[in-house]
Design brief:
alpha+beta; Phosphatase 2c, domain 1; 7-stranded antiparallel beta sheet; 12 strands; 27% strand; globular; binds magnesium ion
Length: 284
């Protein structure tokens, strides 16, 4: 089989294009959301706290993660360091005055492990990361929110969660409370994947099915972002709306090679054995 017929050889790179858009919405006076497009990181932060504290908190988070722009070997530990740096600065806002400040953090990064390209996803709060792949559209992150806990307990449905009176109460955030441990996911990337990072100003207004339709329609990531913000505005945009879309144009690691192709990557680290398909020979 030729390379032209069966995908790409491992190159140690993940190539993407991206777009981003944010809007104050139709009700709020200020936009407390912040966004970051800083390859290999793409992030949304939804700030909270009165008198501009939310704006400051989300901006601090973006600034600290922005230090990783251009990182050629992104590591999970780097994300944790950025998070704790941001947390210390946000906590200092609270101790300096009467205001408590906090922010959500939702991000997607590109990462290469053993010549295979991955999406790394991190979440803290109720901003979200979705993945649209060739075969599926799914919410990757799990909200840290009261209504998510009620859904998990089987007490309400996801549809009821969207209109529940407690829908804005989050259980973890950066600053503004004791719970600030993020969740992480590592997902093998495929060419054509579109990752969406967004604040709840999108998902509170627009249903997942409508979001998927926009992402599948094609066009550029920037066009998709503007269309998604437009949908939220059409629904009333009761909150700030922020979206970032990252599309994989080339992924290292030959995920799409035929299963019998001997060039299929073999991982040397057994810890990865459940995260990637590999040829019948198993781990070297
Ligand atoms: Mg919000």
């Amino acid at each position: 089989m030729t390379e032209e017929q069966h995908g790409r050889m491992p190159t140690g790179t993940v190539s993407v294009t991206s777009g981003a858009a944010t809007h104050v919405g139709s009700v709020r006076e200020t936009n407390e959301d912040s966004l970051l497009v800083a390859p290999p990181l793409y992030m949304v932060a939804d700030g909270m706290g009165g008198h501009e504290a939310g704006e400051v908190a989300s901006a601090i988070a973006v600034e600290e993660f922005g230090r990783l722009e251009g990182a050629t070997e992104l590591r999970i530990e780097d994300l944790g360091v950025a998070l704790r740096r941001a947390e210390a600065r946000i906590d200092a806002i609270g101790t300096a005055g009467p205001l408590s400040a906090g922010t959500t953090v939702a991000l997607v990064g590109t990462m290469v492990l053993d010549d295979v390209g991955y999406w790394v996803v991190m979440n803290l709060g109720d901003s979200r990361v979705y993945r649209m792949s060739r075969d599926a559209f799914e919410q990757v992150s799990v909200d840290h929110s009261v209504v998510q806990e009620l859904v998990d307990a089987g007490e309400i449905t996801p549809a009821e969660a969207r209109v529940h009176p407690y829908r804005n109460m989050i259980t973890r955030a950066l600053g503004a409370g004791p719970q600030s441990d993020p969740d992480y996911w590592l997902i093998p990337g495929e060419v054509g994947d579109r990752m969406l990072v967004c604040s709840d100003g999108l998902t509170g207004e627009v249903e997942d099915a409508a979001i998927e339709r926009v992402l599948r329609r094609g066009g550029t990531p920037q066009e998709a972002c503007e269309e998604l913000v437009g949908l939220a505005l059409a629904e009333g945009a009761h909150d700030n709306v922020t979206v970032v879309v990252v599309e994989a144009t080339d992924i290292a690691g030959a995920i799409d090679l035929d299963a019998t192709d001997p060039r299929r990557p073999v991982l040397s680290d057994p810890a990865h054995e459940d995260t990637l398909p590999r040829h019948a020979g198993g781990i070297a």
